[in-house]
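Reposting from the mailing list since nobody answered there.

I have sequence plus structure tokens for a pair of proteins and want to know whether others read the tokens the same way I do. The first protein:
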Amino acid sequence: NCALYSLNEYKPPISRAKMNQVTKAAIKAIKFYKHVVQSVEKFVQKCKPEYKVPGLYVIDSIVRQSRHQFGPEKDVFAPRFCKNINSTFQNLYKCPADDKSKVVRVLNLWQKNSVFKSEVIQPLLDMAAGIPPPSVTPAIASTAATVSSNTPGNGLIITGKYKAMLVYLAIKILLQCYM
């Protein structure tokens, strides 16, 4: 986290040494890969527009290093980054207009090197071109907790904003334990 947010102390472009430092810290913390990914996603979400592309380069560097070191089959970072990739790229596209070509270049490299499947990358390329994603209507649009007799445990299914809030609180508590 400290290595990642120290990127804000430098003016873009970020040096290779700094990028390596962030990548090494991420790989070293592989047991906490979910927290690493969340930290990078949060950085991309909250950083100034000129730091969006360096944030993408951090994602790229971590994923490439993980695939190189552990192999594509055992890489935990790419699948985890893939979970929120659409919202991450929505934040990335808030970069300066002249940086969008750099984002597309990384996507093309990912496609060429099969880092992510085409069905993951194509909507991100469409997003860059301004093509809206196909609309999906959720089957259940509930934000309240619902009870089901088929659910193991206490029978409570937490959905919507309550689930997101509980997950967020759990992650916050875990991060405080390891800082």
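The second protein, same order (residues first, tokens after):
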Amino acid sequence: MSTPVDSRIDIIAELSTSSVSGPNQEEDKTEESYKPTWLDAEANEHFVGYVEIPECEEPLLKKSESRFLLFPVQYSELWEMYKKAEASFWTAEEIDLSKDLRDWEHRMNDNERFFISRVLAFFAAADGIVNENLVLRFSKKVQVAEARCFYGFQIMMENIHSETYTLLLQTYIKDPLQRDFLFHAMESIPCIKRKAKWALRWIESEESAFGERVVAFAAVEGIFFSGSFASIFWMRKRGLMPGLTFSNELISRDEGMHTEFACLVFKSLKRRPHPTIVERIISDAVSIEQEFLTDALPVNLIGMNAELMCRYIEFVADRLLVALGNRKFYNATNPFDFMEMISLEGKTNFFEKRVSEYGKAAVRHSDEASRGQTSRIL
């Protein structure tokens, strides 16, 4: 006899498999029904927490005229994340690409150029997808001013990320036809199309609960980006492409904050998706990312070990699961010492450590007055 969780898992599986095709991209995969790896016997519904609350009555989502007011701060942790993001502002013009072209033309081989161009093409498309979700879904759904401030700033930063990736491609790729091919990667490159379609399904699905969508886009920014970030940091370790790797520091820092905020929003929900559903969404993203970087666009093209990359993605996924309140699923360790700085575990993250020395100190401390405001978590 199936349980409500099993029924919800079927919906998640349909979302995952109906639009995700295999490595040859000719037809969709057909997966076996998902079998939960562990299930809390006491949580036998689709959700955990205050399971009887309808989504429209969720405090974060319930319409209120207080959504137009910033003070007094009601969700202090969400507000602090907004101020943290605000202090990390940067622009594409601050990236110096003057030395990259020499490395691109004279120090990198064809495989490395192929790999990096595809990674940049994916990033350029992915930031637009993240923004579409923020505009069409999260910004409309969430009624809390503090979260809306963060989403508004995130939209701006995703635009800057997209602009940066576009400038990188324009700098490195001189052939107009090849450049156009990469700019339309969602249609022209099957392995990128697969990742994009998975994310787009979570925007378009009317069956998905808000909490499920939050988890899915935490996976997009926390898992789909993780392997590509690691591959670019690998280039930095080899002393290549200073402009590219510097922008990677800034963008990976931003995406780390976006993922952290998603986890904070998720944990602020009174009614959350069952841990088994969370696990399934994350494990689906892991499978897609592992296939992307070990088969469709293998990291061995740039001299990285594909097996270690798979383990790294599992390590990142475990950290995300824990941040979402789940148990670890893979129990993986971090195989890349050079990636410690951007793992979700990072106690000293880019913002505090200021690896790239980008932080608007005046902005970061300007909210001291607001901290004196009466805060109340609904």
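Reply #1 (J.P.):
I read it the same way you do. Residues 96-348 form a domain with the Ribonucleotide Reductase, subunit A fold (CATH 1.10.620.20).
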